[in-house]
From TrEMBL:
GO terms classed as biological process: fatty acid metabolic process; glycerol-3-phosphate metabolic process; phospholipid biosynthetic process; piRNA processing; triglyceride biosynthetic process
One Pfam family from the record: GPAT_C
Source organism, top-level taxon: Eukaryota
Keyword Nucleotide-binding: no
Recorded GO CC terms: mitochondrial membrane
GO molecular function: glycerol-3-phosphate O-acyltransferase activity
Residues annotated as transmembrane: none
Boundaries of every Phospholipid/glycerol acyltransferase domain copy: 181-306
Alphabetical list of InterPro entries matching this protein: GPAT/DHAPAT, GPAT/DHAPAT_C, Plipid/glycerol_acylTrfase
Record key words, sorted: Acyltransferase, Transferase
Gene: Gpat2
Identification of the protein by name: GPAT2 acyltransferase
Origin species: Thalassarche chlororhynchos
Amino acid sequence: MKTWVCDSGQKLEIFIPFLGKYRPFLGRCCQTCTPKSWDGFYHKQLSSLGFRDAIRVTEEDTRYRGWLVRRVCGFLAVWDWKVPADTPGDLPARICRSKRVRDVATGRSRGSGGDGESHQRWKEKILKILAEIQAPLSLLMLRLSNWALLKLLNRLFLSVQLHRGQLEMVLRAARTPGVPLVFLSTHKSQLDGLLLSFLLFSQGLGVPRVTVGDQVCSPRLRALLGRLGGIFLPLRMEQMPSNRDEGLLGAVLATYVEEVLRSRQPLLIFLEEPPVALRLSAPAREWLALVAVPDVLLVPVGIAYDVVPGGLHREGAHGARPLGLGACLWAACRALRRNLGCVRVDFAQPFSLQEFAAKNLVRQSCEGKPLEELLLPTILGTCQLDDQKAEIWGPGPATATGLEAEEEMLVTKLGLHSLSDGVACSAVMAVGITSALLLHKHREGVFLSRLMLDFAWLLEEILLRQHDVGFSGQLRALVQHSLVLLGARLTLYRLSPIGDVLVVPEASAEALRELGYHSAAILPVFASEAVGACAIRALLMEMLPFLGATVGPSAIVLSQDELHRKTLELLRLLPPNLLGLQPCQPLDCRSQDIVDKLLLCGLLETEEPESERWVCDLAPRPFCKGRPWAGMDFTDSDSDGEEEVPKRCFKLSEPQGSPGFLLFLCRLLSPVLRTYARAVAFLDRPSWPQP
């Protein structure tokens, strides 16, 4: 640990968050839903493999050497990337021969005259629908576009970081015979599709088929994206997402996705639609319901930007006007005016779709049954999964039309679980930490020296919760880097007498909205503690009016039952995906976990009421004459529950080195609470209690 002396003479520690290349390894799959996949493709040595910059291409990435190669190494590297063979002529024939498509076409054409003419007419319709979904890959256009994209990414970002251990884990999964990969990604901007397609292609994972959400594209842009690997829902499905065609549209789309996966081409599905984060989108449900092969490996993906490409993001906002090719080029030119910092892409541990479905179907079949009915097959060793439920759900003749309630619930659980895994493995960027401090702790302004100390404190809290960050280096350089990227929303005053800098965020609604957007990245890290802090605040606001002004919050004893009740009320108000929590955990267990984390972080401390003693306390009592255990009943009886166990109680405490942590957590969660009218009662109070 070193020190840095500022102009005022104050010594500040230079905090180097990581020594060497060892980082927390995030993204392990769920042990509850996928216990067999927990040990698959993972080794503890993967966490020590370090990072690589995916957009830094040198002559070592090519087969050639020399001074001329160093000037055109990007073009040569892209030309050497392997492109899987695409058979545009064979795919339409396989789809037309599919039993699902033939059954739908035969059923609709039954009773019409001219079998040959009817067959030809339905074949033309199938080919027309297929042309709306995809287009054959153009190898020349693919290589030229990736070379241009490499140049664009180098101008936009300082680096695009990939964890070598996570990449090796995905490469091992890709080598599994007969099992395709499906990448389920978070979605931050409209650049994500091109970025992830570039990364997968450059790392030897093939050219992915990228699903395009409900963004309306112009015909030219749609044709270009189709040539580069984009796939779309048919136009009539996009126009009527809630009333899907139960006939030929759904059959062709389901058969196409099945053929793509059977040919081992990776599929990329975005689970959310920007700017709405942590909510499973309707197109994502559509695409997840179409994954219908015997088994696939699902890979959640997390993307973290220092600054989200704003021009591309605004142009990609949903509106009445279709997104055109010219608008995309103009947005890219505007984004080149400033550097957007760094990007970090994380891959979570792959898990089996078949295992996830089987576990959740068993769990759903057990809900509502009496305990003896559940335990007897297990004791006798006759517990078997129903044959129909053991099969992975798949689109039948009415694939993309209507899922049964059980299958629809399974698709929702899969999407929310994958979205939670993608958020959990995402790194926290320096801009997110600085924005959270300026918005929730120093909205009136802060000196740079104080901001650096708080940055180091919040960084340490993030690392203690086993979350990774997308940066490393000296503390002053990190804070200055984030201030430069946020410069348009800040005002800096250099104070010569003391040699410090005063940082004041703008008070405009647009500036606060942008800071809130950046700071939302750290909410999943502190989600549990933030829910517990809001529950504590609600209890304090209920009790303080009756105690008077002389009693402070730290003098109040909180009951465990009351704290659990308030926490459960808050958890029921908020969808779990908004907090980045896994949906497979029951609310009661999650509530207990929140209380344990509050104790661990120092916001609560256990308090034993003076009027209560532990049940097993055999210490001498003043009223006892002789043996202290005299009069106690040690017989084996069923009356153990007659005497109540003393309740656990807690007192509010202040963690060392982090003043105002409770208030910071409450303010961190307040934007999410305000989006739900039922949660207003937790916020609309006269004032915030100071811990």
